[in-house]
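writing this on my phone so excuse typos. first protein, seq and then structure
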Amino acid sequence: MRHFLDIDDLNPSELARIMNLATTPNPPPVLAGKGAALLFEKPSARTRSSTEMAVVQLGGHPIYIGPAEVGLDERESVEDVTRTLACYSAVIGARVFAHDTVKRMAAVSAVPVINLLSDAAHPTQAVADLLTIRAARGHLEGRVLAYVGDANNVAHSLAYAAGLAGMAVRIASPPGYEFSEADLRRMRRHGCEPVQVQRPAEAVNGADVVYTDVWTSMGQEQEAEQRREDFRGFRVDRRMMARASADAVFLHCLPAHRGEEVASTVLDGPQSRVWPQAANRMHAARGLLLWLMEQAD
């Protein structure tokens, strides 16, 4: 049984296979007559919409389960909820607060489990990001990706994905917001060697892709004022984009806080690929589902 909890569950050829499946026209209805349980502890417009439509495109029936319907470790344990959902569905997708939750689900599930987001990883987003870069720049190997901001769950999965695809990764974060040494050791074991710097210009100079995310994620609202101060000078604006290569593209996983981590002139500008990136969330989910069904055969 294969699960998809983070990008490092894959090797380079498996990641390439998923990306190719994601762009396959007229995909086979591998979920015809089957359910896909989509468990959400945290709300999301893009994750829910993209995953539900991916299931529909493969002939399946998406079943949305919100926090009011299932109280994980309150009404029932994570393990018992997982075993129950596996009785009805061919796959379980989960958007959760703690990464340990999806690990516990995968440990007992009779069907594949997909991490739709946790505090440690956002692997479905990373697949969509690579699809977007490949469409914009033609190939991935040898490209330079600059990430400006908090080394959060998005950055974590993105660094793994870019590394597996043969891209160079630079990440600029203020002191205290970098990848931990434990994170870096784990990445190196999987062939990913991100370069960490504290000045955005060092990361962005000559880059093919410039990527950022919100400074304050869901659940960190009480830190918003301090984070705005700590990230002063990290806004991606036209002057920062001018440091990248002439044909660089800008990415953001959304939602964006216009005027904080990114200027509207960049988000809405000619180098932005944020809307194709959002559309690729659906294609990425479809590719992942196709690949997981292949592994289950």
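second protein below, same order as before
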Amino acid sequence: MATALDKFADAKPSWDYPVIIESHINGVRSKEMNPNTPISYEEIADDAIRCWEAGAGAIHAHNTSFDLLENDAYKDYMRSWDKVLEKHPNITWYPTTCNNLRLLPEQSGLGHVPMLRSGANVKIACVDTGISLFSSHTDEEGYIRGREYGFNYDRVASQVKMCNELDMPMIFGIYEPGYARLAMHYVNQGMSRQGSMWDFYLIGDYGLTALEPIGTCGMKPTLESLYYYLDMIEEAKVKHPWYISIWGQGALDDTTVLRRAIELGGHIKTGLELFYDPARNPTNLELLQQAQEIAKDVGRPIATHDEARALYSIR
């Protein structure tokens, strides 16, 4: 019996834009997970510069503490980004959100973004449209432990409102299919700016934070998961570009999924924020170059910095 996903499986390679490959250089992952993870101010700055100069279409970075909010978060970012911006003042980059567990009811989690927009060339913002459970380990009795991450309706609304007021494109982080449905509301109501984009999280056995294979959220890194998301966004009244990011894949060879996304016109997010395999310790540069090689093998051009800015609608 045919399904709506068959058309994606049968589709021939086709694209109308060069592929953008972003480098997501750090996150909540530690040097215990990979000693090449940039943690210090100097390491963050050096990796950002290295990946930008190697052709990343944009850099996504955390500061040194997810717990810092608003002005404190801004000042911490700038201890790395002053160095980056001195060398590349027009670099395309964007920060993360803040720890939702530390927010007051009136805080959105993006209080640092307007400051970085004014002082650090940030023209894009993340909007994570939902709440997920992040597994981290199992206890002595075998029960999964972890924490809650994400934003409720009020905080998502305040983030979308802020982006509209600042005329900033939004990156809709789609951790689960329900996130796409919530983001779809704002897209279909004309409440997303030109240059906004879908980021489909495909999540492997190690999830987003775990050191053991107990991932419990998201859709697995398979072609079927990719096709399902593509089917969902066909309902969108505004056609934003889409990306995939593959998280905590372990020993899974993600080449097939990355290749198919590139063939179907999607874009790629890669880097040590996403990657975890206990048997491998690549660098951010190596992960970027691997994705670039897949694009070259497909035959799809890699976007220049100017071409990427055009897709993000950065002026």
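The chain has one domain: 17-312. thats all i got for now
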